[in-house]
Structure formats: structure tokens, C-alpha cells
Amino acid sequence: MKQADWGTKLLFVNACISQRGAASRTYGVALAFLDAWQEAHPDDAHTMVRVDKMGLQPFTEAALEKRDALAASGDFSDPLFRPARIFREAETIVVAAPFWDLTFPAALRIYIEHISACGLCYHYEADGCHGDCKASRLLYITTGGDFEKPESLGVLYWKQLSEMFGIPRFDYVFAGGLDVDPSKVPEILTEAKEKARQFGREF
Ligand SMILES: Cc1cc2nc3c(=O)[nH]c(=O)nc-3n(C[C@H](O)[C@H](O)[C@H](O)COP(=O)(O)O)c2cc1C
């Protein structure tokens, strides 16, 4: 699949960390989306970031001080801001992560710390926070062992992040119940992949 970088048509935030490797069920649903998207956009390329392989560290006091000093001087060219710059410039975004411990893998939370750069991806005005990301929409793809519950935290988290970043449209695909009855897994995944494909065609 073609790869782009700045101002990418589609940013794929890949948090499919799995003991199944490339056979990750979450990644499988994400691939259904990507294949349909590529078919609908044969001349376009997407950018993929794999959140656990970017060398990102949780913010420490020293890292926060450095980030604040750079932001105060309006200098966002430092590599520290690279994940945020790529996220901010993307035209559309798909995030895929398994449902872990009621949300998602910690590596994705660390990625969120890095893209939540005030002055770049959002800013404050008298009435509160305003988003500055360019994406028109964001799709969150997740798969869970248990069945989907209302207000699932991972889904809510990305819904609220989309609002914070000024991304007007949020959708999600949740393939739930995958660790309940093995005989139902193919059916659940087929349905989730079809939903993902539909989003891929309309993105
Ligand atoms: C570390 C870990 C934590 C998990 N936590 C949850 C959980 O809180 N709720 C849930 O329904 N399933 C949980 N699961 C099950 C996975 O969400 C489920 O098996 C998912 O389909 C894994 O996707 P994968 O094939 O992409 O790895 C967890 C799995 C792992 C490995």
C-alpha cells in the first residue's frame, strides 16, 4: 500500500498490539477499512504510525518543561512535535486498537500525550478549548473480548478527543464478544469488517 506523510489524505494510527501479531483481529478489521479506502482512492496514499514503535515516552517533568518552552516561543519544528504535526495535518484519520483494560493499550495513551500539543492541535480562548486539527472525520476501530457496553471508555475517549481536536465527525466500529464463544468469532468479525469496508468506501 502507498505511503504518504505531511498533509496525508488518511492517517492510520495503528495500536494493534497483539499476541496474534499480524493475525490480530483488530488489525484485520482495520485492513478491511484500508483495502476499501485504497480501492476508492487509487491515486492517494495513506500514512501509518505504529504507536508502540515510535520510541515515544510518557511525559516527564523535564519533557513537559521543554515542550512548554518551545510552544511559548512558537517553535513547533522540534522532533518532539512530529507526531502532533502529522496528526494535525491529516485530512482523515482512522485509529485501531484492541479493547484493553476497559480502554486501549498504554502505548496509545502515550501517543495521545504527544498529539495533545496545545498551540498546535488545539488552543484556548475565553470560552474554552478549540480544536485546530484539519481532519474532517475520525474512525475508531476496536475489538473486545466482552460484548460492547454503552459508553465504552475507549470509544468515548476518542469521541471526546475528536471534539477537542476540532474534528467534526466521529464514528466507530466495535467488534465485541470475541472471547465469549469461539464459534461466533468469524460471524462477528465478518460483520465488523463489512462495517469497516463501508466506512472505507465513504471516507
Ligand atoms: C492485555 C489485555 C487486556 C484486555 N482487556 C480487555 C477488557 O478490558 N475488556 C474486554 O472485553 N476484553 C479485553 N481483552 C480481550 C481483547 O480485547 C480481545 O481478545 C481482542 O479481540 C484482542 O484483539 P486482537 O486480536 O487484535 O489482539 C484484553 C486482552 C488483553 C491481551
Provide a descriptive summary of the structure in words:
By secondary structure, the chain is α/β, with parallel strands linked by helices. 37% of the residues lie in helices and 18% in strands. The protein has one domain (10-202): Rossmann fold (3-Layer(aba) Sandwich). It contains six helices and seven strands. Strands 2-1-3-6-7 form a five-stranded parallel sheet, with helices on both faces. A two-stranded antiparallel ribbon has the order 4-5. Helix 5 (153-164) links the parallel strand 6 and strand 7. Helix 1 packs parallel to helix 6. It binds flavin mononucleotide (FMN). Flavin mononucleotide is lined by residues 16, 18, 20, 24-27, 98-102, 143-146, 178-179.
Number of helices: 6
Strand order of the largest sheet: 2-1-3-6-7
Count structural domains.
1
CATH fold-level assignment: Rossmann fold
Number of strands: 7
Assigned CATH architecture: 3-Layer(aba) Sandwich
Q: Label the overall shape.
A: globular
CATH C-level category: Alpha Beta
Give the CATH superfamily: Flavodoxin domain
Order of helices and strands: EHEHHEHEEEHEH
Radius of gyration using CA atoms only: 17 Å
Largest sheet: 5 strands, parallel
